[in-house]
Amino acid sequence: MASGENMRVFVTGGTGFIGSAVVRGLLAAGHEVRTLVRPGSDTRQLDGLPVERVPGDLHTDSALARGLAGCEWVFHVAALYSYSPHRWDDFYQTNVEGTRRVLEAARRAQVTRVVYTSSVATLGCHRDHTPATEETPATLEERIGPYQRSKFLAEEVARDYARQGLPVVIVNPSAPVGVGDHKPTPTGQIIVDFLNGRMFGYVDTGLNVVDVEEVARGHLLAAERGRVGERYILGGENLTLKQLLDLLAEISGRPRVRLHIPHAVAQAWSYLDVSLARLNPRHIPAATPEKVRLSRRYEFFDPGKAIRELGLSPAPAREALSKAVAWYRAHGYAP
Predict the structure, then answer these.
(1) Most CB contacts within 10 A, which of 19, 92, 160, 235?
(2) Sign of torsion, CA 223 226 231 237?
């Protein structure tokens, strides 16, 4: 697909962290952007941007048809991403059936490219902590929690549509950080907690950190250069949690976190913390049992395929984290 050609583009999830970065990237590249906006959603990420807003959600076929009318590209970024209590049906209807509806509407609209935003949560991990690739085996049974299971099933829907002839390319972002993380994401919450002196210790775990703006760029590259039916890890640098916290200390000037917490202690505390949250709605648990179970895995990934085939060029984690720290401080999340 030729780059440099201006397209009319439909984006779902454009009010979210990754989705809004994709919208900004598309506009910067000269594309005409239309985005689906749920009634009552926080739209501050779109304020001031020349974006056409289509009211509706993933379950409104008429809104999807209006959004897709005349569009050449679709970026399906929207998802229910949470490790807080939600019913399985909420995850299934949004992440699995919502994806099916978007792809079916895209098929009817005869678009030339669909980029589906999956997650590294659908991929396998190596027990020896070596970085996993798109080909590392993974099963539904190994997924932890409803978010991971629903994204695994949604990716199977996307691959099925690709086999049927829809030009779908799948991208799997790792742990993005940076500009616009209003909620914040689980990774962003680690940064905010550290900056506010609420990170008292660390467990043995690892994650792959990438600048959200490079993730957005990876989406555009996937539309231009990605192979139909293939998936691409949009990742950056692999860090243990201790390495991440040490980098944050150097960037921010705050003290290092030195207390190592065994997983068994963290697991026991997580149950207590969740119980406290039930008693006090204002209390936000530092870690849920599900998050602690996830932390037993080192989520190290190799973005080599996206670098080779798409031209992804992730910056070092220090640079991505520096941008995140500056953004959180500028927006009042931390002193």
Answers:
(1) 235
(2) negative
Output the six-digit token pair for 128.
């020896």
Residue 115 tokens read as 């980029």
Q: How far apart are CA 333 and CA 331, in angstroms?
A: 6
114 SS3 class: strand
CA distance 186 to 79: 15
For the chain, the 3-state helix, strand and coil shares in percent, each to the nearest 5, are: 45, 15, 40
Task: Give pLDDT tens digits for 9-25.
Answer: 999 999 999 999 999 99
The DSSP element (H or E) to which 125 belongs, if any, is none
Cβ-proximal residues to 253 (8 Å cutoff; 6+ apart), any chain? none
How many residues make up the chain in this entry? 335
Can the peptide bond before residue 167 be classed as cis, meaning omega within 30 degrees of 0? Answer: no
The structural architecture, per CATH, of the domain 8-180+209-237+300-316 is 3-Layer(aba) Sandwich (3.40)
Looking only at the bridges linking them, the beta strands covering 175-177 and 168-173 are: unpaired
Only one residue has tokens 């505390």, namely 269
Break the chain into its structural domains and give their ranges.
Answer: 8-180+209-237+300-316
Sequence-ordered list of residues with C-beta below 8 angstroms from that of 110, at least 6 positions apart, any chain: none
Helices (H), 125-262: 145-163, 186-195, 212-225, 241-252
Alpha-carbon span 235 to 253, nearest angstrom: 26
Check residue 120 and report its DSSP letter. Answer: G
Distance between the two ends of the chain, CA-based, in angstroms?
46
Residues 108-160: tens digit of each pLDDT: 999 999 999 999 999 999 999 999 999 999 999 999 889 999 999 999 999 99
The 10s digit of each residue's pLDDT in 148-165 is 999 999 999 999 999 999
Kindly tell me the burial class for residue 47, based on how many C-beta atoms sit within 10 Å of its own C-beta (0-12, 13-18, 19 or more): exposed
> Whole-prediction pTM value?
0.93
